[in-house]
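Table S7 (text form). Paired inputs.
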Amino acid sequence: MKPENNLTEGNIMGVLLRFSVPFLIANIIQALYGAVDLMVIGRYCSPESVAAVSTGTQVTQIITSMVTGLTLGGTILVGKYTGMKNEEETRKTVATTLTLFFIVAVILTAGMILCVNPILLALKTPEAAFDLARQYVVICAWGIVFTCGYNAISAILRGYGDSKRPMMFIALSCILNIIGDIVLVKYAGMGVAGVAIATIGSQGFSMFAAMWYLNKHKFIFTFHFSSFRIDRERAKELAMVGVPISIQECMVRLSFLYLTSVTNRLGVEAAAAVGVASKYDVFAMLPATSIASALAAITAQNYGAGKLKRAKTSLAAGLGFAVTASACFWLWAQLSPETMIGVFTKDPDIIQTGIPFFKSCSYDYLAVSFVFCLNGYLNGRSQTIFTMISVCIGALALRMPLIYFAFTYCSDNLMAIGSIAPAVSGIMAIYTSVYVWRKMKQEVV
């Protein structure tokens, strides 16, 4: 099985769109997991169940963020060696990535199950929703091995220039998840447990389907026990590239978990409203996150092939596409926030509570597009230490202290709390742009 796309040749905009659109569709489908869970719970269960799932998904998303950050390291290294046309190093990278992720999955599963109560207590989960949130997180923890597995396989394929097959695997998983949610919640009456079981079951099926398909089509790596091994040099390189990305993803998620802990203190309606907003954060930022991940792979292949100018041109094209797409969600939030919230819940108290938060936080859809795309370009160049430091500063030194300040002095003003994210993203976009511009000036193309 040969690479689907050579990202180092052809019209730049055409290559970017052909590679990133399946990436975008896959990310939209993947985001539907939590969204469908919340929709089904919102229509058939109590407000406490809505708060439980919204809080529980915030917890599970930090695991997903950690995993996707590490897997992006695999994408970058596979992309680099594919661009260099070094098949042996590509094979070693794939084997090392998959083996390490099985080990990581076991560790994360044990850690999540042992720490679920302290985590939910730290998030100030409403008492009425605590047991349900715990149930959701524990069940999802048993599916971490599936999350690691199919995210690792998808990331490797993307580094190999193939964004279509990951889209197919994730689409299969999402369809099964939707069917499982409806059957287990609406008809079996399993509530929060039902959506969690549907999620891990669909992910497991998708992972095994991907392994079977790739073995059948003679992928560069064969899924047999003897193939799983760790190459020390590739493991070091993967850690150098992937761990900083994982840390930055976790820091972003940690800052949003802190926001959840703050708004949970304001009651069930505020907790549910911010939970709904977090779902739109995912969807509205999908164009930017998809382009950023695509840019990481495109940049990695082009730097591996020595085509620096092409990588820079791809960044400019990606920025234009990402900002334009994210602006559509920003306009919706400004003109009709109640209809956005109404997609997930018909509770009038949640809708009214969420309107001011939506109007202010939606500016982040625009600002974060710049940050994600610039970081994607830098990650593709293996400049992951800078992006890690940048994101940590934004999350720990700016976003979390400002959330604390807003909660302390204007806790009843969700518009003020919601304005923090776009303000921080704007600052990050400025200093990251300056860093990228200076790096470009230093290079001879």
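Next pair, protein 2 of 2.
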Amino acid sequence: MTRPALTQAEYLAEVERLAREVRSAALVEGWLTYGNDPEGATVLQRAVNELARTLRHHHFPGDGCVEEELPLIDLVGVVIIRPGVMPSARDETYEQACLRIGVEPREEGWALWNTWGKAQDRITMVVSAVDTTVGLLANWSRGVDVSPVRPLPSQIALIRQGWSGPMTLSPRAVKRTGLLDSA
């Protein structure tokens, strides 16, 4: 029996799935490392370690891989608002949401990052890092728990008390809340 023809996206998803299996096998065998390869690593082990480092997550601007020395920010969840593309549970236009939040509408939209303040207060950072947020969501949709680097002050339009919603929860937040334990 012949296999059905795969689309390019299906083929790439299958290659990624198989690569993750290779990575998992190396982890079970106890020699996988995301850091520098050990001195005695074989050519195959070095290749699998490099594969694992690449597979760690879908890369995006501000993912912390290039900017390794910058601090990451722990997010409970995110919301993206854009002209003409609002979360389905919001009963307002983009312009109305911007007015309510207190920011000027931008063609690129805004990302709302829900996190914690210094005293563990719930806060929302309204940031211009929409592309970073799209990258986060691409990872989170695969169950890959990644955090972005702390935004630059120029990327933060304002910080509000409380969390904005409805939000897409990070995998870490889903684990903390136990939402999937009963599934």
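The radius of gyration is 20 Å.
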